[in-house]
Structure prediction request, 103 residues.
Amino acid sequence: MSDNEVARKVKVKVKPKLERPKLYKVMLLNDDYTPREFVVGVLKAVFHMSEEAGYRVMMTAHKMGTSVVVVCVRDIAETKAKAATDLAKEAGFPLLFTTEPEE
Ligand code: TYC
Prediction:
């Protein structure tokens, strides 16, 4: 077989490499005014957390200043953080959810 024929038979498979999307953390920030039960209620309503998970996340922010709520793609993180912050604002509380890129 000539070199040309060998070359013709070699099939190069090109596997398209899908980039993994960058992930973002939704952070819960502590404050001195929002009632604990309200924070848990928002975590349940917006992030579909159980009472127990919501309580744990709320208490972490209460004690440490911040807590990670969820890690997801940017669009979802920003939408959820805004929905949760808006719920609090409508109720007259200064509760804040922010987003930041994961390391
Ligand atoms: N620190 C608030 C209080 O004592 C409760 C609270 C917890 C507020 C977590 C915000 O992210 C927060 N009423």
Remarks:
- Helices lie at 3-9, 36-47, 51-64, 74-90.
- Strands lie at 23-29, 66-73, 96-101.
- Residues 28-32, 34-36, 39, 58, 61-62, 95 surround L-tyrosinamide (CB under 6 Å).
- Residues 26 and 35 are 20 Å apart (CA to CA).
